[in-house]
Design brief:
elongated, 2 domains, alpha+beta, signal, Nuclear Transport Factor 2, Chain: A
């Protein structure tokens, strides 16, 4: 019986770790208002709960983007998909040297709004497993 309960619990863990999809009505009004003010031309909007904040994925001016917004309406972080060729040269070089056995499936620029700090993200795949790697402007990996 203990094994059955343990297996059932383990089977639910991947679902618990995933972000929860939300409708705009389930998101605090301040967060929705901040999003609409910052991105009035956005289309294809999808909300998710992320830790204590809300992530909104959207398209604007043909760019695939997302933003992390607090419950009180502060835009904390933005992410914009960018083609591999538009990553900074040191980031491209690091990917080519350290991840040559991987396939790069997505790349993006992430900006922390409060500080303006920018990191670059690459989703890499090897053997069917995906991993996100973050880089500073100098090409060094960051946490």
């Amino acid at each position: 019986m203990k094994k059955t309960v343990l297996l059932a619990l383990l089977a639910t863990l991947p679902c618990a770790a995933q972000a929860r999809q939300l409708t705009a009505k389930q998101v605090p009004a301040a967060a929705v208002a901040a999003f609409r003010k910052a991105y009035p031309q956005s289309t294809t909007v999808a909300w998710e709960k992320e830790d204590h904040s809300f992530e909104v994925g959207f398209a604007q001016n043909k760019a695939k983007m997302s933003a992390i917004i607090s419950a009180i309406g502060t835009v904390l972080e933005t992410e914009t998909a960018v083609p591999m060729a538009q990553l900074l040269a040191p980031v491209q070089a690091r990917l080519a040297s350290q991840y040559k056995e991987y396939t790069v499936t997505e790349t993006a620029r992430i900006v922390t709004v409060a500080t303006g700090a920018t990191v670059y993200e690459a989703e890499v795949t090897k053997g069917g497993k995906h991993r996100d790697v973050l880089f500073g402007a100098d090409g060094r990996e960051v946490k």
